[in-house]
Amino acid sequence: MQQQLSGLNFVIIIPTTKSAIPTVSSAFFDAANISSGMELASEPISAPNYARVEYKKGDKQSVIVTSEQNRVEFSETLNSEYNEAPAIIRMSTSYTQMLPNLGCEAVGINFRGFKACPEDSDAASRFITSNFLAKSSFASIGKSPVRASINLVFDTERCPAYFNIAEASMRSESSEATTPIVVFSGSFSYVLKGETSAEKLAYMHECIGNWQFDYAVFTDIVNNHFLAQNVVEPIYQELPQLEADNHLYAAGAV
């Protein structure tokens, strides 16, 4: 399925009962072979309440690992030109395998991308109000289009899927000009099943390894519903079990 969004980002969020900040460091990642095949993109940040390590992957991709308070986050830019599994699949599973006592209770599989609205400064606002809000007199209050952020929850077969649609702006790398954009975010939240830490860890690795199913649902909802021009009456049926595009990324083995 062709992805219509730009700037696609894949994020794995792992809440923990114990602080992971001391372990988010290039020294630990190198020693544990977690960062194999990648180079540092910037100087790591290490503070009492925050840690951040960024790696380069190819010419245009980056991998960022951060930790603050009781959570660790693996983030990677996605590029459909690369026919391989995202690096954060291997990194997050290796990291949690090395640290089974962090107290992981859940995992979030998240995707984010944007649609540019370059027509004028209010184009992103109009896109949201015209496509996601019913026509009403309140939309004309004020000197500019009303601004809105939409939150939706879909009860999918695998887990609850939380979607957010919001406007933002993107600054050009070559100038000070900004472009209005509409950001689409999807979060698939899994509570870890199991009686023991080992069982919960195995279930988390299964959820992470099956990331492509969540990506397929995210792509289907955004492309075929949010960005579709046709208006249809809701049927309230379950989403089909979609298969991820083979030409994008192969599923990472756990």
Shape descriptor: globular
What is the SS-derived class?
Answer: alpha+beta
Strand and helix order = EHEEEEEHEHEEEHH
Which residue ranges are poorly predicted, with pLDDT under 50 across at least 5 consecutive positions?
230-240, 242-254
Largest sheet: 10 strands, antiparallel
Question: What is the percentage of strand-forming residues?
Answer: 25-35%
Rg estimate, integer Å: 20 Å
- Determine the fraction of residues in helical runs and give it as a percent range: 10-25%
Separate helix tally: 5
The N- to C-terminal Cα distance equals: 25 Å
Report the mean per-residue pLDDT as an integer.
Answer: 84
DSSP E strands, number = 10
Describe the structure using short key phrases.
254 residues; alpha+beta; 10-stranded antiparallel beta sheet; globular
Folded structure, characterized:
The chain has helices spanning 26-31, 87-98, 123-132, 197-209, 211-226, and strands spanning 6-15, 39-40, 45-47, 50-57, 61-67, 71-77, 106-116, 150-155, 160-171, 178-191. The chain is of the alpha+beta class.
Quick take:
With 254 residues, the chain is an alpha+beta fold. 22% of the residues lie in helices and 31% in strands. A hairpin with a 3-residue loop joins strand 5 and strand 6.
